[in-house]
UniProtKB/TrEMBL annotation:
<feature type="domain" description="2Fe-2S ferredoxin-type">
    <location>
        <begin position="4"/>
        <end position="106"/>
    </location>
</feature>
<dbReference type="InterPro" id="IPR001041">
    <property type="entry name" value="2Fe-2S_ferredoxin-type"/>
</dbReference>
<keyword id="KW-0408">Iron</keyword>
<protein>
    <submittedName>
        <fullName>Ferredoxin family 2Fe-2S iron-sulfur cluster binding protein</fullName>
    </submittedName>
</protein>
<dbReference type="InterPro" id="IPR012675">
    <property type="entry name" value="Beta-grasp_dom_sf"/>
</dbReference>
<keyword id="KW-0479">Metal-binding</keyword>
<dbReference type="InterPro" id="IPR001055">
    <property type="entry name" value="Adrenodoxin-like"/>
</dbReference>
<dbReference type="Pfam" id="PF00111">
    <property type="entry name" value="Fer2"/>
</dbReference>
<comment type="similarity">
    <text>Belongs to the adrenodoxin/putidaredoxin family.</text>
</comment>
<dbReference type="InterPro" id="IPR036010">
    <property type="entry name" value="2Fe-2S_ferredoxin-like_sf"/>
</dbReference>
<keyword id="KW-0411">Iron-sulfur</keyword>
<keyword id="KW-0001">2Fe-2S</keyword>
Length: 112
């Protein structure tokens, strides 16, 4: 089991270091560590409440977003160039040390 360190920047600006197992999603890890992230559709790409902003340095290491993810991200509030859906990002060993910002607002598009 390979463990990596991730750093989440919370709404209040404070940074939280967590240890995560490779293969887990960013959404899962954030929720397991009690961080504020909704994940309303439980990873089914039907909301955008798992929106995270990835550190530029690590963004290029991530697999490209699918068309479905891009479409869902377009609905997220506070979208940035390095935005991704936390439920679609799986941790790998090369992401050790990655920083992720948890945006202040999320928009739940379920039912729209
Ligand atoms: S949890 Fe809904 S899109 Fe990620």
């Amino acid at each position: 089991m390979t463990l990596v360190r991730l750093y989440f920047i919370k709404h209040d600006g404070n940074e939280v270091e967590v240890t995560a197992e490779c293969g887990a999603s960013i959404l899962q890890i954030a929720q397991e560590n009690g961080l504020e992230i909704e994940g309303a559709c439980e990873g089914n790409m039907a909301c955008s409440t798992c929106h995270v902003i990835v550190d530029k340095e690590f963004y290029d290491l991530l697999p490209e977003a699918s068309d479905e993810e891009e479409e869902m991200l377009d609905l997220a509030s506070g979208l940035r160039a390095t935005s991704r859906l936390g439920c679609q990002l799986l941790v790998t060993s090369e992401l050790d040390g990655m920083k992720l910002i948890l945006p202040k607002e999320s928009r739940n598009m379920i039912g729209f």
